[in-house]
Amino acid sequence: MAAQYHSIPKFSIAMDCGLEDIGIIIELRVREVEEICLVAYSNAAIQPRTTRFITMPPISIRTEGRQCEVAWFSAICSDDYEFLGVPDGSLRSSYEHCGDIVKKADALGYQNILLPSGWIAGQDALAFAAAMAPQTRQINQLVALRMGEVWPPMLARALATVDHIAKGRLCINIISSDMPGLKESNEVRYERSSEIIQILQGMWRTDGPFEWTGKYYNFSLPTTEPAKPYQQNGGPLMYFGGISPAAQDLCAKHCDVFLMWPETEDRIAETMRVMSEKASAYGRKIDFGFRSHVIVRETEAEARAAADRLISKLDAAKGAEIKARSQDSLSAGVKRQDELRAQSKDLYIEDHLWSGIGLARSGCASAIVGDPDQVLAKLNRYMDMGMRAFILSGYPHLEECDLFAKHVLPKLPSCRLNELQGRRVPDPVTPLTTAERR
């Protein structure tokens, strides 16, 4: 068998493979089971007997199987456009329009949907999730919650309420950005978030009395029953994103899924490595998620034309104004994306990753652009790196939701992380289901 060269990461393993020359150095990669890709740095002959390949991520993650949770995005914070930066009354963040996005994503088979948080005309994420839960069939809702806005015991009770309404189809996106009208240091925001997360998780895992003594909160409760969620074994999964050292430490120590905004693959890989090591230092494993926009068309030329059209009416000053509305517009993650866009010549920071959306949007600022095979290949590379969740969106959100579901979604090995990890189980016993009433 002649040696062939493939430039690839070193994170697949072979089992039961016999080699004629055991001194040879080999890299192995698998796209599909039983596909053999060999890189040989020797002229020795390679004589495989029987070979089984197992695709493994290059880092330690919680969900080792090669599958992903695919989420869409409901624009409940005035973030839907046909032309970026040109407000369209028909796409305002009304209950009806945002509800249509959720119900479409549910019908098309997306496993989750992100409901963001912000101080702008739109919908409150948790209240909106409660309203949507009975109207959806299978989709989880990933609710963005800014830590500190609600007294923690009452927040726990509100989450328990929505989790029961949704029958366990609830996840939490932890946010630690500034609260509307208030500027605080990173240290204060992340310390407070850490306390709140520990309070929530402590109440979910504790039966009977609960006491908390901390820097920001001090209280004593006779029982945790009002806080008990529908989900078991630790309650709703917590998703979290942030680049600063304080943010990364918070996620590594307490959360379940670390979310990343679009950057070049080498930067993403390095962040994943660092975060995996940080979590390991706390005796934990976490999963990784990728938040991106997407523009998929039948041909690459059509996709690139759609990207160009999206910003064709954008006024730079208006774009900057819209971007500055967000509570995270000055965050480290946004600044890193701005730097990459400034270094690009045509708004593409790498192949098929277009940063034009960041001209008028804070937070996630880039889109995967291409034909169905190109978009799928990009997502497959992220999965090979260890990504296990994708949170996608596109403008307008209803139309792009349809296009991605038509061209790409059925080709991805999908899952629901809260089911894989034993949080959402059949017939849980809680104070609001079948536990003895006290």
What features would you describe in this structure?
The protein is an alpha/beta fold. It has 2 domains: 56 residues, no CATH class; 352 residues, TIM Barrel (Alpha-Beta Barrel), CATH 3.20.20.30. The chain contains 12 helices and 17 strands. Strand 9 and strand 10 form a beta hairpin.
Write a brief caption for the model.
Helices cover 33% and strands 18% of the residues.
Notable characteristics:
438 residues; alpha/beta; TIM Barrel
Secondary-structure blueprint of this entry?
Blueprint: E1 12-15, E2 26-28, E3 38-40, E4 52-55, E5 69-73, H1 95-108, E6 112-115, H2 125-132, E7 140-146, H3 152-165, E8 170-175, H4 186-205, E9 210-213, E10 218-221, E11 238-241, H5 245-254, E12 257-260, H6 265-281, E13 287-296, H7 300-310, H8 316-324, H9 332-343, E14 348-350, E15 353-354, E16 367-370, H10 372-385, E17 387-393, H11 397-407, H12 417-420
Parallel strand pairs: 5-6, 5-17, 6-7, 7-8, 8-11, 11-12, 12-13, 13-16, 13-17
Antiparallel strand pairs: 1-4, 2-3, 9-10, 14-15, 15-16
CATH class of the largest domain: Alpha Beta
Distance separating the two termini: 72 Å
Which second-level CATH architecture of the largest domain applies?
Alpha-Beta Barrel
Main sheet overview:
8 strands, parallel, barrel
* Strand-residue proportion: 15-25%
Number of separate structural domains: 2
Uncertain segments of ≥5 residues (pLDDT<50)?
Answer: 1-55
CATH topology of the largest domain: TIM Barrel
Provide mean pLDDT, rounded.
86
Q: Shape from CA axes? A: globular
Q: What's the CATH superfamily of the largest domain, by name?
A: Luciferase-like domain
Q: What is the H/E string? A: EEEEEHEHEHEHEEEHEHEHHHEEEHEHH
Radius of gyration: 23 Å
Q: Which strands sit side by side, in order, in the main sheet?
A: 5-6-7-8-11-12-13-17
Number of helices: 12
Helix percent reads 25-40%
